[in-house]
Amino acid sequence: MAPAKILILVNLHCRSISSLNLGREVTRTYVEKIQSMGIIATAKHYVNNEQEHDRLNHSVIIDERTAWELYYQPFMAAVEAGVLSVMCSFNKVNGVFACENNETLNTILKGKMGFKGFVMSDWLAAHSTKESALHGLDQEMPGPIYFGDALKAAVESGDVPQSVLNGMVHRILYSMFMIGIFDRPQTGEFTANVTSDAHYAVARKAAAASTVLLKNERQVLPINEKNVTTIAVLGDGALDPVVWGGGSGYVPIAHVVSALEGIRARVANTTIKVVHAGTKPFSEAVAVAESADIALVFTGVSATEELDRKNLSLPADDDALIKVVAAVNPRTVAIVTSPGAFLMPWADEVPVIIAALMPGEQFGHSITDVLFGDVNPSARLPITLPNKENEVGFTQSQYPGIELETNYTEGLFIGYRWYDQFNITPKFAFGHGLSYTTFQYDKVAGFLDENSEKREEIAILVNITNTGSVAGAEVAQLYLGYPDSAEEPPKVLRGIRKVFLQPGESVEVKFNMTNQSLLIWDVESHDWTVVPGDYKVMVGASSRDIRLVGSFKVDENKKIEDIDF
What we know:
By secondary structure, the chain is an alpha/beta fold.
């Protein structure tokens, strides 16, 4: 008998990136890379699974335009990249469970988006046999409750046509054949330990590359070994860091490199002394901080499946620790690991703040690389960090729901879009991130691309120069402002370009904008459209650090003209 074929899938959390408008680029790249290695990518959770509270019962009430412009976007990108599996979510969408929702699964995903792969349920997210089968679910997970024998009986009774079952099987087999499962002999065992030094190196590099330097007053960082004799490493998070979430966000790892371990390894061959104190008693941490040249305070907060965070605060003892340490050491660095936004009541009291987000098993080494300047931080915030709890439009939205309905009344105004719309300055803006060097932006040109005969594509060239003394990467961001009649947020991210430059080096960065970049959803035609009028182009280092501004017009025939950049 031939060996059984194993279906391997890697999940992509599209819901985590739906609000970024980076979703299309990030998703497309991720899907293509995964599937190039013979592994089926699964885009999840489709769709509108933005909260964990009552996720098995609550219904998301969302308007058509908001759904298409924000929450369908990363899934559209996944489909365009050829994703072979999509996982439907637990919640209801406009009153119907996502795994038996004919509108979202058949009409939109398999119809308008043109998805050719198969739809699997989240674990125990199926709620029916006939409705699920007829309305777009192809595979029930983790096992047959409503499918299996129940589906067989439904087909035999005629409740589910044989053609529907054939379609379900076809989609699953199509995905398996497309990825080459039947063409490749199976080797190895799932129980094999595939950890290697190369994997450790990738994890370390990725974590360092995703570390965001939020604040660096008086150039406290990077640490200059020649000027430091004692380093205080403080907080319980220095020994037991938060580097992952719970539920599907949990990854079993044999060993997590702590910050204390990483820093001690880095200075092992020097005369620098590393002294640690936990979060409490504060008196011990203060004594250690007072006698150190620099104080590094580590804190963090996690999140888990099935339960939303109660608030955006860090542990109260850690907030207090940062305050008392900053009061006695002017070179205090606060390092935060977090799966999302967090509050910083001490932000004005410390010269340096680092957001390490969810750094993984090599955290101790990766954060040390950044602290000592072995890696120049180049990551940018994928979220907006607020000033206070409930700052972002909760007077308008309905989280966690009213009678098991969560109405997305904020519409298009989420994240940085909300801050721009209501002219509120966030603590740290979307797209923000500092470097150990500096960059200058200079205008070059904006023009209709010579290869675009239909006057539908603009090429925008920006010159970026590393004006500092060390090599580093800049992440240029292009935002688009729409005509007032479009009723869009003041600016919408439409492109990113990351460039690595040596000191004094310049590079010409090119952004391309086509008519597709201008599209908004028209609820009357139920399709994409371009609104005529005056558009604004903004290029900068964050949503609130705009360096260059240009403009163009779209005429009544939807042709681009009058470019001024």
